[in-house]
Design goal:
alpha/beta, five-stranded mixed β-sheet, about 30% helix
């Protein structure tokens, strides 16, 4: 099966693009976790603005990788699709965002 996603290293962190589903979630978690373990500066950007689809397995993989943040300030820039799927339905009514990880509290930036 052809891969429908990718992860590129940038000067600030990583850029993820394509579709993250149950077929790609484990590879995504492994690659993101490896990138987070590299000696970066104090902050690390996870740019998900190129992600066109993410199901619950992709969100779970993201959360597991975020738990390995290594004390870095994690900044997660989402696509509209990921932002909507990472919020519980009640939060949409209140207009609030939710943290993906209680230990690191990454900043979620919607597009």
């Amino acid at each position: 099966m052809t891969s429908t996603w990718g992860l590129d290293t940038t000067a600030e962190g990583v850029r993820v693009y394509g579709e993250l589903d149950m077929d790609s979630a484990e590879s995504f978690r492994e690659q993101l976790s490896a990138a987070l373990c590299e000696p970066w500066g104090k902050s690390f950007l996870i740019d998900l603005s190129g992600v066109t689809f993410m199901d619950s397995s992709g969100l779970r993989a993201l959360r597991k990788a975020l738990d390995l943040g290594g004390g870095k300030d994690l900044i997660v820039q989402t696509s509209r699709q990921v932002f909507k799927s990472s919020r519980p339905p009640a939060a949409e009514h209140r207009g609030t965002s939710t943290s993906m990880s209680s230990r690191h509290k990454p900043v979620l930036i919607s597009c």
